[in-house]
Recover the amino acids of this structure.
């Protein structure tokens, strides 16, 4: 028996005619479905929700990942990982179809589960979750769709074959014959291009149909596999004529494969387009800056406020432009309500004595070296002095490290220990197991959102956009989207200068200076001005850095030739 099979509701097929197929290794559709690890999956989910809002006929394809990414516990200041399984039969339908793959000479059956993403007007779109945990498959094959980003390189290669080739064949099996664009969200699904190419041997035919989005600004972040291994797994040779364009020193580069066969390629922020163009000089790379799904990320108190003063924002987030007209005291009340939800969550769950009134800084994302989660703690004495000067500071952290990222795990330990040393001047909490629910509480419940990536490692970043939707300004290095979104003292503040080489000592000094001389004085002494900044975040940034604007750009620039 496969996972959840016994209780599954089964349907025979889908009566739907998608025009676009959106492939992503991870996608967040529901808090109880743990098929995401972070930014990439959130973006994919926000994108699908927006396609549904706009009645754009899209089908998404991803892996089931029924044991999830990881559930994080903190034991003696260290991350401990557990499986984060879920039961697909609770919220998905099993489609009574099956396709066959051959991986490494072995037959592998793949079956589709379906989850419907509903838009604001009720239009719903299918997300297909590929499952190899099927009777008749070998133990090895049954595990292929168990773990998101787990296992060794062979496991990863087999997963990418399931996603790209299995996904492509499932769409055929579902009779989705009207698909004319395949959008690869990162290189994990690039094998689908080989399916298109092998049949026709016509590069232009494939390119017309494919769109590629890259998310990674560093070379090491792009998957590659030895050609020999790929051919052994696929059971056929990569066509000779394309080999020179898709390989690096004998390895198949999944990004190059996807890019080679796409008529449109984009990075996820203007700055990321420049970085990617340097990494892949032979391609013309455009940029479509990421966004977030407004209705998903606006907290309940702000939803009520927006409904009252900006009706229609749910269908059309550009309306958030007029946020400047909301009375300041109501913006403040909505914020205090959202802040109370976060502070109460912290006090109730972790026995902390956080205050509703003290200035509160939030930092949450994947814990990894380039994001420099320790930067705020770089000079503990300075931070303690700042905290004392305002009678206390509150800091909320959360985030998982990838199981193989030992440095990321050490950073978690380092941050937790620094936080403890700073008590009681600084009240500190590291909330374990960062996920959608904690993200939503945090981006709306803190007073300031902090981001400290080492330039140019952050392709876009999206959590600051979620904060902006809740009137929470950001303090960040000028990387990713922040280069486009910041106006100093108007929508938030910058750490360091544009295009400057990142340096921990200099950047931390700048961070402390901004906190001490610009941010805290406005928050405590010029509350009216602070609330103006909050409104600017909504009017200037939420109205633009949303997936509605982003999807419209994809439709106009990428999907239609
Ligand atoms: C938004 C989000 C992320 C991505 O945050 P970044 O700032 O873009 O790194 C990661 N995890 C969760 C749970 C999120 O909601």
């Amino acid at each position: 028996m496969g996972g959840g099979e016994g209780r599954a509701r089964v349907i025979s097929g889908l009566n739907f005619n998608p025009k676009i197929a959106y492939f992503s290794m991870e996608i967040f559709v529901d808090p109880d479905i743990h098929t995401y690890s972070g930014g990439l999956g959130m973006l994919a989910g926000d994108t699908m929700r927006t396609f549904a809002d706009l009645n754009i006929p899209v089908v998404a394809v991803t892996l089931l990942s029924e044991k999830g990414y990881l559930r994080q516990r903190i034991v003696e200041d260290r991350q401990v990982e557990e499986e984060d399984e879920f039961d697909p039969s609770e919220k998905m339908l099993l489609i009574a179809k099956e396709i066959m793959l051959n991986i490494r000479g072995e037959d592998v059956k793949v079956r589709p589960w379906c989850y419907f993403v509903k838009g604001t007007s009720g239009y719903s779109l299918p997300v297909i979750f590929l499952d190899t945990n099927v009777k008749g498959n070998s133990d090895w094959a049954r595990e292929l769709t168990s773990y998101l980003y787990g296992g060794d390189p062979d496991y990863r290669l087999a997963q990418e074959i399931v996603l790209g080739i299995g996904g492509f064949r499932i769409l055929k099996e579902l009779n989705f014959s009207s698909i004319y664009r395949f959008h690869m969200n990162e290189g994990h699904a690039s094998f689908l291009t080989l399916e298109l190419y092998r049949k026709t041997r016509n590069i232009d035919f494939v390119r017309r149909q494919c769109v590629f989005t890259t998310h990674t600004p560093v070379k090491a972040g792009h998957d590659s596999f030895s050609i020999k291994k790929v051919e052994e797994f696929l059971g056929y040779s990569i066509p000779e004529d394309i080999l020179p364009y898709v390989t690096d020193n004998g390895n198949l580069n999944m990004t190059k494969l996807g890019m080679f066969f796409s008529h449109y390629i984009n990075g996820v922020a203007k700055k990321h387009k420049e970085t990617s163009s340097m990494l892949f000089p032979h391609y013309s790379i455009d940029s479509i800056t990421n966004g977030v799904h407004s209705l998903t990320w606006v907290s309940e108190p702000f939803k009520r406020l927006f409904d009252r003063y900006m009706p229609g924002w749910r269908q059309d987030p550009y309306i958030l432009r007029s946020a400047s007209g909301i009375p300041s005291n109501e913006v403040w009340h909505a914020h205090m309500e959202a802040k109370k939800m976060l502070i109460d969550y912290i006090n109730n769950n972790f026995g902390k004595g956080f205050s509703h009134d003290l200035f509160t800084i939030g930092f949450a994302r994947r814990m990894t070296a380039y994001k420099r989660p320790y930067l705020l703690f770089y000079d503990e004495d300075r931070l303690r002095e700042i905290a004392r000067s305002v009678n206390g500071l509150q800091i909320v952290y959360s985030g998982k490290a990838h199981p193989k990222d030992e440095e990321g795990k050490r950073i978690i330990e380092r941050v937790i220990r620094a936080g403890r040393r700073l008590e009681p001047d600084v009240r500190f909490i590291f909330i374990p197991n960062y996920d959608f629910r904690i993200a939503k509480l945090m981006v709306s419940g803190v007073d300031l959102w902090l981001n400290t990536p080492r330039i140019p490692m952050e392709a876009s970043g999206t959590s600051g956009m979620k904060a902006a939707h809740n009137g929470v300004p950001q303090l960040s290095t000028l990387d990713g989207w922040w280069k486009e979104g910041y106006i100093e003292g108007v929508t938030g503040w910058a750490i360091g200068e544009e295009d400057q080489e990142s340096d921990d000592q200099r950047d931390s000094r700048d961070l402390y200076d901004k906190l001490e001389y610009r941010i805290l004085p406005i928050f405590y002494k010029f509350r009216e001005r602070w609330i103006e900044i909050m409104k600017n975040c909504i009017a200037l940034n939420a109205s633009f850095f949303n997936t509605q604007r982003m999807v419209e750009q994809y439709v106009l620039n990428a999907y239609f030739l």
In short: The chain has two domains: 9-291+550-559, 294-545. Residues 393 and 426 are 5 Å apart (CA to CA). The chain has 20 helices and 22 strands.
